[in-house]
Specification:
Layout lengths: L1 E4 L6 H7 L16 E6 H28 L9 H12 L6 E7 L7 E6 L6 H15 L9 H13 L6 E6 L4 H16 L3 E6 L4 E3 L4 E3 L8 E5 L2 H4 L14 E3 L4 H4 L4 H8 L9 E2 L8 E6 L9 E4 L2 E4 L9 E5 L10 E9 L2 E10 L9 E3 L1 E4 L6
Parallel strand pairs: 2-19, 5-6, 5-9, 9-10
Antiparallel strand pairs: 1-2, 3-4, 3-16, 7-8, 11-15, 12-13, 12-15, 13-14, 16-17, 17-18
Helix pairs in contact: 5-6
Length: 381
C-alpha cells in the first residue's frame, strides 16, 4: 500500500458535480485527487476477506445478543428491544454497511467500528472515484462493485416488498445526505422500484389507518431512511413504529450492529480474532493504551485516546453517554497523513472500499476522501 502523487484532472470539480458529489470542497476541500492510494490485489483480497468474516460474525452476534438477552450490557432501552427482536426474527432485509479498518498494507486489517445503520461517503466511493479511475489510470483496477451490487440488492429487497413504491428520506439540512439519498434512489429505480425522495421531517402518521404517509398523504409501505435508529426511537412517532407494517431500511436489527458496545461483545466471543482489537465495556481492561468511544457517537465526536499521560480528546454532544474501551492502535502514517479504510458490504457481500485520511489521529467530518487504484501483484522470480 502506497500513497502516490497524482495529477488532478483540470475540471475535477465539474466532473464531481455531474455525478452528485457536490460537497467536494466543503471544509477547505473534502475531496482530493492530487494523491491516491495504490493497493495490490493481495491487499484487496485481505480487506475483502476481513469484511466478509466480520460481517458474518456481526450478524451472528445479533442472534446471540437476542438469545442470551445481552441488551442490558449495551444499555439498549427496553422499549426498543421488541422491535429489534421482531426485525431480526423476521429476517428483514438489509441494504448496506461500512466497516472502518486500521490497515497499513502489511498487517491484518483491524476493526475500528461498523457503520451499519447510516453509513455515508457512499457516492464518492461508488461513483466519484470510479470516474476518476477511468479518466486518470484506466489501465488499473479498483476495489469497487458498489453500484452494480446496490442495484442487485435493491432487486432482492423488492421481492420482499408489498408493492414497488419506495420512499427515501433524510434530514433536510445536509447536502451530503440529500445527494446520497438521490443516488440510492437512482440505483433503486434501476432495480425496478418507483421512487419518491423527501425530507424525513415531512413524514406523518395517519392514526385511523395505522400507517405512515408522505407530504402528499400517500402511504409509505417501504422506507429507506438515512436517519439513525437511536434518533428515530426517540421521535414523536416512535410509539407508532411497531403498529405499522412499513418496511424500514436499514432494519431495526442493524441498530445493534451500529452500537459501539458491539466491539466488546465481539472480543468476548471471538478473542484473538485476527481482525479484532481487544475491547471492553467496564473499563480499559489490561490495555496499556486505549480509545474511549461513546456508544452512539458519530463523526469522531467525544472520542478520547489515552496513552499513558497523553490524552487526546475531541469535542461533541455525546460526552454524557456510556462508552466502550478499545485497545489503541495508532493509525498508520503515510507522508504525515493517517488513512482509514472504509470497506463496504452490500447485502452480505464485500462490495468495495473508500479511503479517508487526516493529519489528526482521530478522524472526523473534515477528514479528506482520497481515491485508490489496484495494481497486479509483482511475482518474484
Amino acid at each position: 500500500m502506497h500513497r502516490r502523487v497524482r495529477q488532478p484532472r483540470a475540471d475535477w470539480p465539474a466532473q464531481l458535480d455531474r455525478v452528485g458529489v457536490t460537497y467536494h470542497s466543503l471544509d477547505g476541500g473534502y475531496w482530493r485527487e492530487d494523491v491516491a492510494y495504490e493497493l495490490s490485489e493481495t491487499q484487496v483480497d485481505d480487506l475483502a476477506s476481513a469484511t466478509s468474516s466480520l460481517h458474518r460474525l456481526c450478524v451472528e452476534a445479533v442472534e446471540r445478543i437476542i438469545r442470551e438477552d445481552r441488551f442490558a450490557d449495551l444499555h439498549i432501552p427496553e422499549q426498543w428491544r421488541a422491535r429489534i427482536i421482531d426485525s431480526y426474527e423476521r429476517q428483514e432485509p438489509s441494504l448496506y454497511g461500512r466497516f472502518d479498518f486500521w490497515y497499513d498494507g502489511i498487517g491484518s486489517p483491524k476493526l475500528l467500528e461498523y457503520n451499519a445503520d447510516t453509513p455515508t461517503s457512499l457516492l464518492e466511493a461508488a461513483v466519484g472515484q470510479w470516474g476518476w479511475l477511468r479518466e486518470t489510470c484506466p489501465e488499473a483496477d479498483q476495489f469497487n462493485s458498489l453500484h452494480e451490487r446496490l442495484i442487485g440488492q435493491w432487486r432482492a429487497i423488492r421481492r420482499r416488498a408489498s408493492n414497488d413504491l419506495l420512499h427515501l428520506a433524510c434530514l433536510d439540512g445536509s447536502d451530503e445526505d440529500r445527494q446520497t439519498v438521490t443516488y440510492l434512489a437512482d440505483t433503486a429505480n434501476q432495480a425496478g422500484w418507483r421512487v419518491q425522495t423527501l425530507p424525513i421531517e415531512q413524514i406523518g402518521w395517519e392514526p385511523e389507518r395505522r400507517r405512515f404517509v408522505d407530504h402528499r398523504n400517500e402511504p409509505i409501505s417501504a422506507l429507506f431512511k438515512l436517519y439513525p435508529w437511536e434518533w428515530m426511537c426517540q421521535d414523536a412517532f416512535a410509539a407508532e413504529l411497531p403498529r405499522s407494517s412499513m418496511m424500514v431500511l436499514e432494519p431495526a436489527w442493524k441498530q445493534v450492529l451500529s452500537h459501539k458496545g458491539l466491539l466488546a461483545l465481539l472480543w468476548e466471543w471471538y478473542p484473538d480474532h485476527p481482525n479484532l482489537l481487544p475491547a471492553f465495556l467496564s473499563g480499559p481492561g489490561d490495555c496499556a493504551a486505549y480509545v474511549k468511544k461513546p456508544f452512539w457517537s458519530r463523526e469522531g465526536a467525544n472520542i478520547s485516546i489515552v496513552n499513558g499521560d497523553q490524552v487526546l480528546t475531541t469535542a461533541g454532544p455525546y460526552d454524557a453517554q456510556l462508552s466502550v474501551y478499545q485497545q489503541y492502535m495508532p493509525l498508520p502514517v503515510f507522508e504525515g497523513w493517517h488513512p482509514v479504510i472504509g470497506s463496504w458490504v452490500v447485502g452480505d457481500e464485500p462490495a468495495g472500499m473508500g479511503i479517508r485520511e487526516d493529519r489528526e489521529l482521530i478522524h472526523g467530518n473534515q477528514s479528506r476522501f482520497v481515491p485508490h487504484f489496484v495494481v497486479k501483484d509483482v511475482l518474484n522470480t
